[in-house]
């Protein structure tokens, strides 16, 4: 059985309210999928709102990340119970599991995208599925630039030109700069897809045409 690593953006899980319908679809997709799945959960709304509050009080940047990590753990705890999976994992280790492993943030200085890279390395997996609310990676952030164009395939060098290279807690990029550097070095591919359209991930896994961006 192959192992699939998925980085699930926290805004799919909880952008301000827990997305029950998304979680039901994710559960059904993962359960029906023939592969073992490692799900790395982002922090979403909880991470961003708690980090914003910490900044108001002059908390140091490492504290922002530590708070963000706890938000990822909370989201992961919900998923691990939904999937009846082993306890939430933070430090990546090569461990045995039967079907689903749910993971959260580990150390300050990156997002859970980087944790997904670390898990992929541990399991010798060369592809990471990065799920967000967007169909593609775009030339610019489509939230602010309506003329942003979707990109279907790009090298790591090309991708890195589209994002800020400096890490800051709560940073929102399709795949964070720390994770990108590590994935490029490990010659990994990151497939960015819309988590609301899991059928596109299924298409990719079956080698069919799909909606999404391949980096690497
Ligand atoms: P994420 O940035 O991964 O959650 O973690 P998110 O915002 O839900 O992810 P995307 O952008 O939608 O995919 C939340 C915060 O937790 C801290 C960082 O501050 C990060 O912004 N964190 C997370 C770490 O410091 N280390 C980790 O390993 C993971």
Blueprint of the fold:
Blueprint lengths: L2 E6 L1 H4 L6 H13 L3 E6 L2 H13 L4 H22 L17 E4 L8 H11 L4 E6 L4 E2 L11 E2 L1 E2 L1 H7 L14 H9 L3 E6 L3 H8 L7 E3 L1
Parallel strand pairs: 1-2, 1-4, 2-3, 4-8, 7-9
Antiparallel strand pairs: 5-6, 8-9
Helix pairs in contact: 3-4, 5-7
The site of uridine 5'-triphosphate has 27 residues, from helix 1, helix 3, helix 4 and helix 5.
How is this structure best described in words?
With 216 residues, the protein is α/β, with parallel strands linked by helices. The protein has one domain (3-215): 3-Layer(aba) Sandwich (Carbamate kinase), CATH 3.40.1160. It is built from eight helices and nine strands. α3 runs antiparallel to α4 and α5 (112-122) packs parallel to α7. The longest helix is centred in the first third of the chain and has 22 residues, at 61-82. The chain is globular and about 50 Å long. The mean pLDDT is 96.
| Termini gap | 24 Å
Beta-strand percent range: 15-25%
- Low-confidence regions: none
Number of domains: 1
Number of helices: 8
**CATH topology call:** Carbamate kinase
User: Which sequence of strands runs across the widest sheet?
Assistant: 3-2-1-4-8-9-7
Judging by the overall fold, what is the CATH architecture? 3-Layer(aba) Sandwich
Q: Given the helix and strand composition, which structural class is it?
A: alpha/beta
What's the CATH class, please? Alpha Beta
Elements, N to C (H/E): EHHEHHEHEEEEHHEHE
Helix content percent band = 40-55%
């Amino acid at each position: 059985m192959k192992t699939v690593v998925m980085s699930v953006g926290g805004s799919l899980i909880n952008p301000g309210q827990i997305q029950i319908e998304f979680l039901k679809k994710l559960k059904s997709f993962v359960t029906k999928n023939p592969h073992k799945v490692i799900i790395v959960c982002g922090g979403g709304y909880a991470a961003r709102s708690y980090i914003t509050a910490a900044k108001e009080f002059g908390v140091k940047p490492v504290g922002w990340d530590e708070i963000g990590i706890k938000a990822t753990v909370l989201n992961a705890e919900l998923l691990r119970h939904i999937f009846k999976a082993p306890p939430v994992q933070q430090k990546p280790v090569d461990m045995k599991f039967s079907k689903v492993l749910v993971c959260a943030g580990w150390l300050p200085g990156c997002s859970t995208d980087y944790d997904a890279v670390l898990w992929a390395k541990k399991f010798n997996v060369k592809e990471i599925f990065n799920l967000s609310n967007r169909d593609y990676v775009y030339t610019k952030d489509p939230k602010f630039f309506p003329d942003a164009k979707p990109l279907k395939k790009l090298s790591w060098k090309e991708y890195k030109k589209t994002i800020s290279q400096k890490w800051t807690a709560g940073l929102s990029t399709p795949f964070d700069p720390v994770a990108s550097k590590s994935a490029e070095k490990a010659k990994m591919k990151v497939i960015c897809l819309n988590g609301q359209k899991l059928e596109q991930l299924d298409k990719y896994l079956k080698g069919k045409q799909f909606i999404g961006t391949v980096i690497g």
